[in-house]
Each structure stands twice: as C-alpha cells, then as structure tokens.
Amino acid sequence: MEHENPGIQNWGIGIIDQLLFYSLCDDEDVAQILDEARNHSSQYVKEKAEEMYLIFNTEEELEQI
C-alpha cells in the first residue's frame, strides 16, 4: 500500500479484506498491516482498514461470550 498509484493502494487493502473474509489468513497475520493502513494517507484505505478492524474485534468479543 506504499505504491504511489491510489488504485494499487486500494487493491492492496482489498486483498487483505478478501484474505480475512475467506479465512485464508488470521487477523494476527495482518494486524501490523491493518495498523499501518488505519494511518494511511488514502481515506479509502483508512476506512477499509477501520472496517476490518471493527469487524474482527467484534467477532473476537462475541467468541468470548
């Protein structure tokens, strides 16, 4: 997501989203990437990272109940 092309940055966060959605990786595997993405210069990347962060933290909380 460090590429200068915004389209490639958006694809990058989209790939992370799909990997998580289809359980092809664990959220721990991409935690650092999501942390960095939440502070990205692109508003779209920041919003997608925040959505993923909220979804997976909510799921963890529900599993603890």
Determine the number of helices (DSSP H or I, runs of at least 4 residues): 3
Strand content: under 5%
Total separate domains: 1
Rg, alpha carbons: 12 Å
Indicate the structural class. Answer: mainly alpha
- Helix and strand succession? HHH
Structure description:
This protein is mainly α and 65 residues long. The protein has one domain (6-63). Helix content is 68%, strand content 0%. It is built from 3 helices and no strands. It has helices at residues 6-21, 31-37, 43-63. Helix 1 (6-21) runs parallel beside helix 3 (43-63). It starts with 5 loop residues before the first helix and ends with a helix. The mean pLDDT is 89.
Please outline what is shown here:
This protein is mostly helical and 65 residues long. It has one domain.
Topology diagram in text:
Layout: H1 6-21, H2 31-37, H3 43-63
Helix pairs in contact: 1-3
Note the main attributes of this structure:
mainly alpha; 0% strand; 65 residues
